[in-house]
Automatic annotation (TrEMBL):
This is ABC transporter substrate-binding protein. GO terms for biological process: thiamine transport. It comes from the Bacteria. Keywords: Signal. GO terms for molecular function: thiamine binding; thiamine pyrophosphate binding. Pfam families: SBP_bac_6 (PF13343). The keyword Thylakoid does not apply. Residues 1-28 form the signal peptide. GO terms for cellular component: outer membrane-bounded periplasmic space.
Length: 340
């Protein structure tokens, strides 16, 4: 090969390498990983589309639950994969204490009420949901819609009641505490919930590990202990024969939070996502998906009109996140060892 040809050949290789590098860089710059962002849950599907449209960041759906997300973050500590994580509020402090989150105060931070954010910025609430009974009325086979926690123990609902596994899912752990507090227990004493779940075991409950929205819509699980936003989505968005019930004994409200993963490979994109989920646009979207946005003014009158009356919501009390987090290991251990 003569010198001119050699020079052109080398220049071509250099251009190709530069192009590949540019493509790889663009590919990396336009992506981020969010753990526990399943499209069927809390309308994350719409949020992920908006993040791509508004920010140019592609975020693949992820179907981990809160417990699985924290376990993965701990396992990957030396070489993080995720950039941001979405968690039930019960998992917020445990994630911080595990050293997998790094402080970041997104735009709008100062407007978030105290108690709904870590003082140092490790996590912050983006919206909340009220726990109750997500019921497919057509799948009840003519049986009445249950109105109380105690109704779930009736033989007529055998094989019809579901709840997420408390050994891993935040909503499952919250369900234990919601029942416990409603039946006279405390954050330190969960005997009432353990007794209730052992009684419920005689009714052959369905205990999935992952979000089970589709299984309720199809009627496979006629009654699921779950959030209001899923029931309203089924009723109003998917036109399914579903409704939401706040048990007469009472229940709890839980915030859902997000945080920046420590050492995440696309930290800048992670920060942009965290800014976005507190933006006016995103907060309005959460409200239109029947969640209560952390900035209450973004819940539209139209969406609010589809919620149960305020008189029903008066039976739902905000959960104490610190006490709930402290009770989490006890909930998991006692459920695993005592509920048969």
């Amino acid at each position: 090969m003569n010198f001119p040809k050699m020079r052109r050949f080398v220049a071509g290789i250099a251009l190709a390498v530069t192009a590949v590098g540019t493509i790889a860089s663009a590919h990396a710059e336009g992506h981020a990983i969010c753990y526990n962002c399943p499209p069927e849950w809390a309308d994350w599907g719409s949020q992920l589309k908006a993040i791509n449209t508004r920010l140019g960041i592609q975020v693949p759906p992820d179907n981990k639950n809160s417990g699985q997300s924290i376990a993965a973050l701990i396992a990957e500590k030396a070489n993080p994969v995720a950039d941001v994580v979405y968690l039930g509020g019960i998992a917020a402090d445990p994630a911080r204490d595990a050293g997998v989150l790094t402080p970041y105060q997104p735009k709008g931070w100062e407007k978030i009420p105290d108690g709904l954010k870590d003082p140092n910025g490790h996590w912050f609430a983006i919206h909340s949901g009220t726990l109750g009974l997500f019921v497919n009325t057509a799948a009840l086979g003519g049986k009445p819609v249950p109105q109380r926690w105690s109704d779930l123990l009736k033989p007529e609902y055998k094989g019809m009641v579901g709840y997420l596994d408390p050994t891993s899912a935040a909503v499952g752990q919250l369900g234990v505490m919601a029942i416990n507090l409603a039946l006279g227990g405390s954050y330190d004493n969960i005997d009432p919930a353990i007794a209730f779940l052992n009684q419920l075991s005689k009714n052959q409950p369905i205990v999935p590990k992952q979000t089970s929205y589709a299984r309720v819509i199809s009627g496979e699980i006629p009654i699921l202990i779950d959030y209001d936003f899923n029931a309203y989505r089924g009723q109003y968005s998917d036109k399914a024969p579903t409704r939401f019930v706040i048990p007469q004994e009472g229940t709890v409200v839980l915030p859902y939070v997000m945080g920046l993963v420590k050492g995440g490979p696309q930290a800048d994109n992670g920060r942009k996502i965290l800014d976005f989920v507190l933006s006016d646009e995103s907060q309005t979207m959460w409200g239109n998906a029947y969640l209560r946005p952390v900035f209450a003014e973004h819940l539209s009158a139209e969406a609010k009109a589809r919620f149960l009356p305020d008189a029903d919501y008066a039976r739902a009390k905000p959960v104490d996140l610190k006490k709930l987090a402290a009770a989490q290991p006890m909930i998991v251990e006692r459920y695993r060892n005592e509920v048969k």
